[in-house]
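Before anything else, study the sequence and fold tokens given here and see whether the fold suits the sequence. Record follows:
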Amino acid sequence: QVQLVESGGGLVQTGGSLRLSCAASGRTFSNYAMGWFRQAPGKERLFVAGISWSGSNTYYADSVKGRFAVSRDNAKSTVFLQMNSLTPEDTAVYFCTTTRTPFLSVISMMSTGDYWGQGTQVTVSS
């Protein structure tokens, strides 16, 4: 059974930074692509960033390119999202996701993931 638990959200001022974490259990972590989505109130859940199972490739939504960085620590079965230069438009619940099938590309999960964490709230004040 796959379990994903996000942490690291909070309240930050415009221009500040946060580092989100997603701890995974129930599978061989290094075999799976991992991704981050976010959902603001009344809006769709959208892809933010992802990292391949190999760790060789990362992908970002245009809205966060140059500001966010996704990474993974396989020894800790954890994926991170470093968020810099935050703006109020980044305010959302951030969700960690992964796929049912191993060795898939990040591209395969950009529309939606298969397993989800509970989400962590990020609020950026103006």
In short: The chain has a mean pLDDT of 96. The two ends are 40 Å apart (CA to CA). The chain has no helices and eleven strands.
